[in-house]
Amino acid sequence: MESNRLSGWLSSSSLVDIKPDSKARDKAVARRDIPAGSTITTAPGFVTVLLDSEKGIRCDHCLREQHGLKKCSSCGSYWYCDSKCQSLHWQDNHKRLCKKIYQFVNSIAFQRLEKHERMDSLLLTHLLAHLSTLEEPYSPEQSKQQALFQSLLSGPPDISLPPYCPIKPPPPSDDFVTSLFSRFGNNNFTIHSHLNSIAHGIFPLASRLFNHSCVPNAACKYVLTPGNTATMEVVALKAIPAGAEVFIPYIDPALTQTRQKVFQITYQFTCECPSCLSLKRIGTVPEPPSDKAEVGQVGLQLRTFVNVEHYLKTGEFQQKSLDALSPSLHCVLHESYLGSLSESFSKSSHEGDYAQAADSGITLLALYLLIYPRNYPEIGMHLLEMAKTQWNHSFIELTPLDEEKDTAKGIVLQLLTLSRSILQVLGQEGDLDSGPFKEISMLEDLIRNT
Asked: Could you count the other beta carbons within 10 Å of the beta carbon of residue 127?
């Protein structure tokens, strides 16, 4: 599909144009200056499937978390908000699966699959069931979404096709099914609500439009509304000047060591973003020290390099280049360092060791500010967790004096302010009845009434 044909998919409200690119098939560039927080484009969902852990908690059609879901009385395998969602899902794909899905998911072939393989199997099943309902079954002429999906680049040639539920009318051939499935690994998305994974989905327009960067200037969020399938919105994380390319992350930018292997195996390209070029210049990343005192010293150096204390006090932050890291700090780029910091913060927060939680939390924040781009939502979520930990320490574990209480309140409120300032760039997403913005408001109310 050429760039001009692809442009026909973009609505008048879209903030990008499609241009030829020397390294990729195309690139999405800003039509005009795009302020941070702007919705760049909206991509409708094609097919989705809930994670097994979310079944019975979320509606299988709109994916919203709801109480009192109604189970399909025939197959007992799908749950719905109401009769509207059930009817829409029936027309979309369920009518082809209802009599067979229970037997399929309990079959030996399906049960032998690994967890991620089961998700692929079910997503493929939903896709084929949907295509079978077209006026001319399985014809891309009947579905723009299908035509766009089949225009996407396929993944590695040596894929193994998972089993899928038998469907009538059946697909035209095994080659057709394999062709569809070959586009799963390098094009599909994990749908999240408040950064928690809830489902997998196919969003052909987003897959076709946006190239990857480990320092993206945009990110994806998912809008869940009653009676509708999930919709993706691509949002600017920072101001993007007219003519600049818009990038999204295909994987977590925190994967500093394994990212290139993932790109080569799954996406069949080598990333040459500024972060990856810096990592290439650094070379082999050394392991973090094992001695506790040395680990603490590395953490202090990292915090000083990032100037995290200044950020916590003022909200002002200047992104540091990985090239400026001293050799003694190269070990913070080892993926095990992030893992150990995250574990230390989480464990000490839950076990009530708040002094350790505060220390590891600030160091983890410094690392996030180093490896993630400005306004990346993981930074905002971590600041919220730091605020909750500080609250528990100051007002649950201790009974502070009035002067100490005012100081503690100020610290918590500043953390909440920083958290909100980042998270509001991406905006509300996923389930609207819960999430970080409600937690921030609730904690602010507690502080005001304390």
From this structure: 24
Q: Six-digit token pair at 314?
A: 């003022």
Positive or negative: CA dihedral 74, 76, 77, 79: positive
Type of residue numbered 242: A
Q: Is the dihedral of CA 267, 61, 376, 385 positive or negative?
A: negative
pTM beyond 0.85, yes or no: yes
The string of pLDDT tens digits covering residues 139-169 is 999 999 999 999 998 988 788 999 999 999 9
**CA dist., res. 117 & res. 110, Å (int):** 9
| Separation between Cα atoms, residue 165 and residue 129, nearest integer Å | 9
CA distance 247 to 7: 17
| Side chain identity, residue 68 | G
With beta carbons less than 8 A apart as the criterion, state whether 217 and 29 touch: no
What is the residue type of 188?
A: N
Among 336, 342, 328, CA closest to 300: 328
Nearest CA to 164 out of 121, 127, 119, 132 is that of: 121
Strand 47-50 to 196-202 pairing: antiparallel
In contact, 349 and 167? CB cutoff 8 Å: no
- For residue 271, count CB atoms less than 10 angstroms from its CB and return exposed for 0-12, middle for 13-18, buried for 19 or more: buried
Locate 219 and state its tokens.
């990110």
